Amino acid sequence: MITSLFVVEDTASLALVPENAVTFDTYLKDYPKLNEPRLRVINLCDTSRYLSQGYYCSLLAEARQHDVLPSVKVINNLRASGVGGLWFNDKVLGKDVSADEITGAHLVCMGEVADVRLKKLAQRAFEEFSAPLLRMVLSREASGLKAHVTRVSLASLSEAEQRFAQDVLASYARQSWRKRGASKKYRWEMAMLVDENEAVPPSDKGALSRFISAGKKLGIRIQQVTAADIGSLNQYDGLFIRETTAIDHHTYRLAREAEESGLVVMDDPESILRCCNKVYLHDAFNYKKVPSLRTEFVSDANRETLEGLQARFGFPLVLKMPEGSFSRGVFKVSSPEELEQVCRKLLAESALVLAQEFLFTEFDWRIGVLNGRALYACRYYMARNHWQIYNHGNKRHFSGGFDALATFEVPRKVLTAALKAAAVVGQGLYGIDIKEVDGKAYVLEVNDNPSLDHGVEDKYLGDELYMQIMSEFSRRLELRGR
């Protein structure tokens, strides 16, 4: 079990933090200790000045291989401009909260904030600037809600803020980070990011447990974590994202932070950026001559534009949001009135919308590709009485059936199209959706973070599917080195 150690500037500050606290001088002279438990150092010293006690505390902690908050990198990032900036749209506050109600300064302690309405904003600030104490100043701007984030010291807090920080730090001190087994040593440590409240997660519990088992066989300890409790990424060697990704989301920010910290990451931030935006994908498909359905970008809902779409595509046609997953943000329109209504609705949220020819098939191919190699194959059948594999408006018949088969049973043109589409994105783990009609393959999209559920995608390969993915992690970790 990892022990928390709070480091403060002087003895006067010791009364403000939990019992397991020391001054900077004590940490400098008495640590590391012989046979000490693994430490996570919470640096509460002032870091506003270069070469201050706070700066050296984090620098020494990293040199001593103690997990530390904040890292030297975060200290430098916040000190470079004196402030970190974040932008939020009003949706993050919820319908019952006005941005004008919460403007002003707020203390963020270990990602917690006194005003529960600001919990998502505080967690975002903590994810972006992982420091124990932050001052978040919210202001209403024309383009949204802006948060100025600065690092603050314990001594600079008001009495009310000190009491709040004491409670949060005491609670944090009681938490355990990773548990280390006494009987078995692991070569690598990996965080597997999940969202326990996600309605349609990329992997079910059966698949997650099989990933963990496969990792153990290869010397990788996998800890299942959420964005709220992941802590410092520096304590891990790899990050495996099993939560639905998006660009304006903590999954992308954590992937980017992990990659910058030298972790092996899947999905890597570049893959998330490319896969999550269908505008990029279809433009790249056209440039790289990947076989795909006829697609156009729509930027307005003027009469001339809509009449042109109707003339070129006919009805029905499909309108898509640039970002979306699990058949969300995809609409079939069957009349001029419906075309205008849906187009205006989508353009109110996005500067571009995709218009695509409609092609009905009884099933879509899903080809799983890892590092440029076909790994698994499935046929996803359309949901009952629906034109997509998912029907979010029907709980009883939410999804259709499936088949899982060997990749050598997949038609050659389908397999070739899948590998060509994956190469457009990168060398990660992807799920390529393809329609097949009259011996021709049409790529719909490339999904980072593809669905991997026990009893579905692993129906043919079984546990070997999880071993293959973890083996690729192991290979990349060995190439990276310790």
Which residue ranges are poorly predicted, with pLDDT under 50 across at least 5 consecutive positions? Answer: 177-183
Distance between the terminal alpha carbons, to the nearest Å? 22 Å
Number of domains as seen in the coordinates: 3
- Kindly report the spatial arrangement of strands forming the biggest sheet: 5-9-8-6-7
Total of DSSP H or I helical runs spanning 4+ residues: 13
Work out the helicity level: 25-40%
What would the principal axes of the Cα set say about the shape?
Answer: globular
Structural class: alpha/beta
Radius of gyration computed on alpha carbons: 25 Å
Protein name: ATP-grasp domain-containing protein
GO molecular function: ATP binding; D-alanine-D-alanine ligase activity; metal ion binding; ribosomal S6-glutamic acid ligase activity
Pfam family, one: Dala_Dala_lig_C
Keywords: ATP-binding, Ligase, Manganese, Nucleotide-binding
